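Database export, one record per block. Field names are fixed; values are copied verbatim from the stored entry.
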Amino acid sequence: MIILRISLFFLILLLLPDWYIYRFHIKYCAKQWIRKLWWMPSICLLLALLVFVSFRDSFQHAFGIYLIVALCIAVPKMVFMLCDLLIYLCKKSVQCFIKKPMPLSIVHLYRLARICIPSSAALITCIYIVFGAAFGKEFFQVNKVTFISPDLPDAFNGYRILQLSDIHTGSWDDHGEALQRAVTLCNAQYPDLVAFTGDLVNSRADEMKPFMTILSQLHAKDGVYAVLGNHDYATYTHWNSEAERLANIDTLICREKQMGWEVLMNEHRILYRGNDSIAIAGVENSGNPPFPNRGNLPKALQHTDGMFKILLSHDPTHWKRNVLPETDVQLMLAGHTHDMQVNLFGFSFSKFVYPEHRGMYLENGRGLYVNVGLGFVMFPMRLGAWPEITVITLKNKQ
């Protein structure tokens, strides 16, 4: 279903700019071979897309490379189209305002602008996409935020939580060096607690084996706590039996524990500072279909009445579905969205799928923080939605 949605998106992204540029520019080219050649890149990409949709289980890695190539071709064309259209509309507006023919010098300037400005914008966009593909997935960013709640006990004022999410070890291949840099950067924040909000693997527990030594280096005063994400349930690959899939989940949890991580499966732990305490709770993935919905909030929050509570829940839709209306949890930490790994100048298509898709959201003094993830899945790039390490400082007053 996800691949089909992406396919429809790329169909529009490829054909609309091609039609526009051909209609207003290429069509008037004197050389016929240029007019015919114009459609070849998009035709090849569409044929390749048909192959990937038909045999997606056999070419998952290649599909990621395909997406990057398609973005490098289609997005600059879209940018060219939008810039060109804007210049054209500006000209029309000026003509309507002055109500007389434009001077020849202005006409020449207009024609030059319709070539230079859209072409330059398209070239810059292409360079930006190449940067995202080559370096973006390792362009780790530490985002520091503050969450204020009067319910926080005084002894925990200034408490620092480092949140990681969506590492997707199966996508890192031989990039252990990059993951080591990320872990070193995490430890340099000296957090009181590390919270991992799911999707450690793409599907199979074996994906994490090459990185267990690196990830076991994560440390904090009060330990590392984790929950499962939708990918951790291993539903994106073929298994010979349901028992084999369930055994894979057990292996994943066992290996997380071997790394020193505490996996919260609809349960909580109490953290103490002197006579004060807070609860750190975690639920299994709770998502809308087709994602698993195994979260059990009453079980996870049992015997925490009146306490300041931090909830780890992979899917941010859980916040408004259940957490806000059914609990008094003050702060929920989530991941899952990746901000679709592409965010251009603050805009991401993830906002049309997830109302809460990145950063901090507040409602009546209660908060949700959505981490856009450290890793990547499906296509090996990040653009604008840089891999994130979040440091959340808790305070009980301004």
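Remark 1: The first strand starts at residue 141 and ends at 148.
Remark 2: The chain has two domains: 2-134, 140-395.
End of record.
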